[in-house]
Amino acid sequence: LDKSGDHVRFLIYDGQTLVSRTYYSHGTREIGDRLMSAMARQMGLSNRFWIELCRCDHDRAAFLATVRRS
């Protein structure tokens, strides 16, 4: 998680390898469906899996396995 600059960035590493990333503006007060869909695409995930991941329904291992399959 990187909050420097104008955006909040989520960078996911598997060891030293960057496997997925997304970001949103600091000015975003609410993350709506459209932004959630864009973030899911950036992360290489389905909308459903991304929402479940944000709700902590999946752990890091499940996330990495899903990204590797796609």
For the biggest sheet, the summary is: 2 strands, antiparallel
Percent in helix? 40-55%
Instruction: Give the spatial strand order of the biggest sheet.
Output: 1-2
Per DSSP E runs of 2 or more residues, the count of β-strands stands at: 2
Mean pLDDT: 87
Poorly predicted ranges (pLDDT <50, ≥5 residues)? none
Sheet-strand content, in percent, reads 15-25%
Spell the H/E element sequence: EEHHH
Structural class, by secondary structure, is alpha+beta
Annotation field: number of helices: 3
Radius of gyration, in Å, reads: 12 Å
- Basic shape: globular
Note the gap between the termini.
Answer: 23 Å
Describe this structure in words.
The chain is 41% helix and 24% strand. The protein has 70 residues and is α+β, with helices and mostly antiparallel strands. Strands 1-2 form a two-stranded antiparallel ribbon. Strand 1 and strand 2 (17-25) form a beta hairpin. Helix 1 crosses helix 2. The model has no long low-confidence stretch (mean pLDDT 87).
Show the helix and strand layout.
Elements: E1 7-14, E2 17-25, H1 33-43, H2 47-54, H3 60-69
Antiparallel strand pairs: 1-2
Concise overview:
By secondary structure, the protein is α+β, with helices and mostly antiparallel strands.
